[in-house]
Amino acid sequence: MIKSIVSGAVVAAALAGAAAAAPSTPMSMSLSWLVSPTDGACRTDLDLAGHSGAVTPVTLVSDGDRLVLRFTKDDIPAQAFLPIRIDQKPYSNLMIRTADPKVGELILSPETQAALRKGATLNIAWLTDEPVSAPLPDLKSCGAQVATQTRARLAAEADAKARADADARAKAVSDAQLEAARAQQAAADDQRQRAAYQAQREQAQQEAARRQAAYVQQQQAQLDAERQAYLRRATPVYGSPYGDAYAQQPYDPRYGRQPYGSQGYGQGYGQGYGGRDDGW
Predict the structure, then answer these.
(1) What is the pTM of this model?
(2) Comparing C-alpha atoms, which of 100, 113, 40, 93 is closest to residue 72?
(3) CA-based angle 132:136:137, to the nearest 5?
(4) 8 Å CB contact between 135 and 31
(5) Domain total for the chain?
(6) Is 171 strand, coil or helix?
(7) Range of the domain at 239
């Protein structure tokens, strides 16, 4: 018996058509994968029957590019090449064990898929203790639907990826330009700060030099004024009894003259007053 994932109305119509066409046949060959693919894949469940009447379910799953026969069996090897028969002709295909150690997937080759689409009966000898078989449905509709959807999905994914890559490149260029502008602005700000600091430093140096020059000038003017005042005080009075010795300017370390009581002043004073030998 074949269990397709279709609505109840479709199944009823298909079964009614099959019964009208061949009432003595277990299942009509016209039943196709009239399903709407979901999640990029469609499936058909097949019930393989043996001579004893025992039924073993398997599932055909198609994504438009790959067709696998999924089954359940104990002691499945990790990988193996296993044969199936389509209209009594053997076809060997690679079997891979899934994450479930009791579930295997027989990846049907293009040759096997072509035979399935044209064949009438599927036979498997190794699935159970006895050979099992089932009539084959029409495998064209679902595969075509899924292939169309797969191509559309891949095209949409490629377009989305291209847009995302373009946006990422544009963002990278924009970020690089923004970073370069920020670096240029930072360099300009640093240069302006350096220039302002240098100008302030030069202005401070000029102000310090101006103040130093003003201070030196003030000190020199003060020294000149003190010198003039000193010279006026040291000018002799004409007719002084002290004679010419008094007219000698006293010593000052700033002007290089002798102080009062120096040799010149003492000699003149001694000669004029008691400096003689006559004892006056």
Answers:
(1) 0.41
(2) 100
(3) 145
(4) no
(5) 1
(6) helix
(7) 234-272
At 132 the three-state DSSP class reads strand
Give the closest residue to 265 by CA, choosing from 247, 238, 278. Answer: 247
253 located within any domain: yes
Confirm whether 250 is domain-assigned.
yes
Nearest 5 degrees, angle CA 236-CA 241-CA 242? 60
DSSP 8-state symbol, 120: S
Q: What angle do CA 209, 219, 261 make, to 5 degrees?
A: 150
32 within a domain of the structure (yes/no): no
* CB-based burial label for 68 (10 Å; 0-12, 13-18, 19+): buried
Residue 170 to residues 165, 177, 181, Cα–Cα distance (Å): 8, 10, 16
Closest CA to 75 of 102, 96, 48, 45: 102
Residue 129 belongs to some domain of the structure: no
First to last CA, the chain: 172
Per residue of the chain (280 residues), give pLDDT as tens: 444 433 333 333 333 343 333 333 333 333 334 344 445 567 788 899 999 999 999 998 887 667 899 999 999 999 999 999 999 999 999 999 999 999 999 999 989 988 988 889 999 999 999 999 999 876 655 555 555 666 777 788 999 999 999 999 999 999 999 999 999 999 999 999 999 999 999 999 999 999 999 999 999 999 988 888 888 876 555 555 544 444 445 545 555 544 444 444 444 444 444 444 444 4
